[in-house]
Amino acid sequence: MLANLGSDEATTAELIKWVEKLEKENERLSSENKRLTTQNDILLERFARWQHNLQKMDGVDMNRLATEIDNGLPAKNRD
Q1: Could you tell me the residue ranges of all domains in the chain?
Q2: What does the pLDDT look like over 10-32, one tens digit per residue?
């Protein structure tokens, strides 16, 4: 793409706009990544806490629980 560009002021202005657009997109994606990383960390901690508490409960078969918890959700009835 850059090989086809000229060196006039209009081309330079377009390149500046393009770079600004890419910088904004990068900022948005970085912010979203940070938010999702934080959310993921919270969910991982919650899962670990649930697992720990379940292991302490009498009568909980962790192998059965793992099998049951991995079952898919029922299909939605859209009628």
Answers
A1: 7-68
A2: 888 889 999 999 999 999 999 99
